[in-house]
Structures are given as C-alpha cells and as structure tokens.
Request: fold
Amino acid sequence: MDLDINYGTLAIALSVAFLVIIILRKGLKIIKQSQVVVIERLGRYHSTLESGINIIWPILDVPRKINWFNDTGLSTGSAEFGIKYSKVDRIDLRETVFDFPKQSVITKDNVNVEINALLYFQIMDPVRAVYEIEDLPIAIEKLTQTTLRNIIGELELDQTLSSRDTINSKLQSILDDATNKWGVKVNRVELQDIQPPHEIQEAMNKQMMAERERRAIVLE
Reply:
C-alpha cells in the first residue's frame, strides 16, 4: 500500500515538475539588445518587453506580431515593388534601410523617368507602430511612392536632374511628418539614380558634345 502511495506521489510530482518546466520555457523571454516585444493580455495591450530577461504568463500573455522586411524565406509582400515581408514578434529599434527598386514617375514636362531611392528610418514608439497603422512596411512603401511622384510631378526634367538635394530634403520632411503618428522617425532619404528615357539621354549627350565642340571652336 505504501509503495502504491509513493508511486502515486512520484507521478504527481513529475507531472507538476513537467508543467513548471513548460511554463518556464514559454514564459521566459530573452530579448536582444535594440529589440522589444509588445505583449497583449487577453487581446489587449499589456506591456512592452525590453532587452534582457522577461517573464510572462503563458496563454494569457501573447506577443503581438507585425509585418516586417525580410530578404529570405517564405513571405508576403508588394507585388509592385517585389519587396518581401514576414510576420515577426520582435520589433527592431535600430535604423532600418529601405531600398526601393526603380519606379516610373512623370515630370512636369511629361517625361517618364525611372528613380530608385533609399529610405533610412527608425521606430521610436513600438506601441504606436503596432496599433496606429495596420501594416507599417506597406504604409511606408506606398507613402514614399506617392510622395515621390507628387514631388517629381512638380519639377521639369532639368530641375529633377539638378536638384537631388532639394528633392531629398523635401521628401524626408514630408515622410517624417506623415509617419510621426505611427511612431516612426525618417532620418534620411537618398535618390540613388535618376534615369530618363534612352532617347532623352542620347539627345542630352548630343547637346553636351555640341556645346563642347562650340567651346573648342571659340577657344581655338
């Protein structure tokens, strides 16, 4: 009889120990430097886990996942830009570089040019980045796309080619103001390349060569 009781007590103790191990494993969260995790308890925002060791209640506390940029693996993304995203529960607070592939925009004088840009931004408030906008990366992508088209649409081709710093500053100011509600800070925007149509490039090259020949004749 005592032997049966001992076996029963041992089984209960092992079950309790196993349950404690599972709770500790799922409830113990180690967050890396420059990362945070937004925790929801029963569907509502509860807390933000900072870097280091954190303890949550399994089942009750669930990390909120968001869409974020991803270069590898299976993901969803923009069909227009070909940018890939994936669901993550760790929000990176470091500065992020968003490399936009080339997109076509039309200048004020109806010239179709291709522009690719770099966007440097940083999440300053992870709670607002999660709850103030449904899909942060796609929102930034579309906002940058439409803003760039609006800015270039106000400039002629010659102004577009000679005013990169002005375009960068104006684009950065507009984006930073618009994304402030989402807890995002746009630090810098860089236009990498501006390519007019091939025939326009040939005409510009001929014009440049003619101007050089004229100057050479005058000098001679």
Q: What stands out?
A: The chain is about 45% helix and 30% strand. The two ends are 120 Å apart (CA to CA). The longest strand covers residues 112-123. The chain has a mean pLDDT of 82.
